[in-house]
Amino acid sequence: MTNDPMNAVQPEIFAGPAMPTPNRLRLGDGAEIMRQWPENFIDLTVTSPPYDNLRDYKQYVFDFESIATQLYRITRQGGVVVWVVGDRINGGRSLTSFRQALFFQGLGFDMHDVMIYQKKNTPFMRKTAYTNAYEMMFVLSKGAPTTFNPIKEKTVRSGFEKLTHNKLSDGINKKRVAELKKEKTKTNIWSYAVGLGGTTSDKIAFQHPAMFPEKLAQDHILSWSDEGDLLLDPMCGAGTTCKMAAINKRNYIGIDISQEYLDVAKYRLEQNGIAVCGDYYER
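-> structure tokens emitted (283 positions)
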């Protein structure tokens, strides 16, 4: 019997789920792919689900609860999920958005903010209600967000003025001299033009039936992440989140069930000089 350590039985090492390669597009079901990943490593997700079967997504059946559960598992502590969603309005509002928000809360996400995506140029008039011009943007965080880079806008006026402050239960306005800054943080209602030139100037992107504007994706990316962070869109469609992540020096992973849409996403990335790592349609 030898004591040569080279002949000793080596213990089996279990490395656990493999970390995914960044800057890659993946073909497949988002929930199934995310199940293969470790916990707590995605910094930011910016996505919009195919809610209420309002569009044809190649017969894809959207499993919301599985997607949401995996997003909570893989989001790091302090990370954020931006969930852009609306409701079916014909026959009364479906309230899908609110049901999804409550489910996210039940998983453990904090509802950090409820924001509004206002469409500046919606053409759809309604006979018995006001024109619907918005979707919800739920900002879900796993604990308090560790990154917030607020977008600023110019104030109408600035300088020192007497400003109302500290109105108490008596309802009397009390004033004091205070400074109005030259800039202020934007409100949580964001307005964007939609359509060609608004949503994007990439004509090929409109092969996808529903996209959010590039500027919307960029504004959230800049707000909730820093350069070098890892961003995800598990239903990336035409690749808007991936494109804006790369342009703003973030790493990205995009997943979609449709190779046709991933072909569009790959083309958009490459047209902007963005290399897509490896065999992007690998499952």
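The chain has two domains: 20-149+187-271, 152-185.
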